[in-house]
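Review form for a predicted model. The reviewer records the input and the model, then writes brief findings.
Reviewer: anonymous (R2)
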Amino acid sequence: MSSVRENIHIVRETIAEAALKVGRRPSDVRLMGVTKTVDDERIMEAIAAGIDIVGENYIQEGKRKIEKMGSKTVEWHMIGHLQTNKAKYAVRLFDMIHSVDSMRLAQELDKRSRNADVKTDILIEVNVSGEETKSGIPGKQALDLIRDIATLDNLSIRGLMTMPPWFDNPDDARPYFVALREVRDRIIDENIPSILMKELSMGMSGDYAVAVEEGATIVRVGTAIFGARP
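Model under review:
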C-alpha cells in the first residue's frame, strides 16, 4: 500500500474503534481529507483510496484543484475563514461551507446563492474556546445567529463546526467537543423550522478520536493522511 492509502486505512480504523467504544456506528462518521498545500498527486491518491470529502482553506487554491480534479467524484468543502467578497466564488465551488460565523457573511452567501440558483449547505462555526485568534461566534450567541439565518431562503444550516485549542494531550480537547455538542443539543431543543442539526464538524489529526467519542460526524484530517506540511 502507498503511504497515503495506508494512512487512510489507519485513520479509518481509529475512527471505527473510537465510535464503537461509545456505542456509535463507524458509518456515522465521515472522514475529510484536508488538502491545504498538499500536491495534486497525493490528493488524487487519497481520492482513489476512498476519500470522498476534500476540505480546502482558500478559495483560489480550491478553485484550481476542483477545476483540475472535477467536482463529481468527491464533495469539496470550504473549511477556512471566508471573506464576504469571496462568497460569490464559494457558493459555486463548494458543496458545503463550514465557516459561517456572522449574519453579514450569511446574507452575502444567501444573495450569491440566489444569483447562482443554488441552495448552499452551511455549518455555523462556533468559537467554544473563546480564543481571540480564532474565528467563530461565541456559543452563547449561536442560537440567535441561527434563528436569523433560518430566515434566508438560499442557505441550509446542517450543523456546527469548531476548532479547539491545540494540546499535546488529545484528551484535553474533550471539553471543547462536549461544549459544541451541548450547543447543538440546545439548538435542537428549540425546534427552529428548516434547521437540521445533523453535522458536528470537529476533530483534526491530533484529536479526531476524542472528537468521535464526543459525537463528531465529520473529522477534518490532514497531517495524519498526507504527512507534515512543508
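Findings: The first strand starts at residue 30 and ends at 34.
Further findings: The mean pLDDT is 95.
Recommendation: see findings above.
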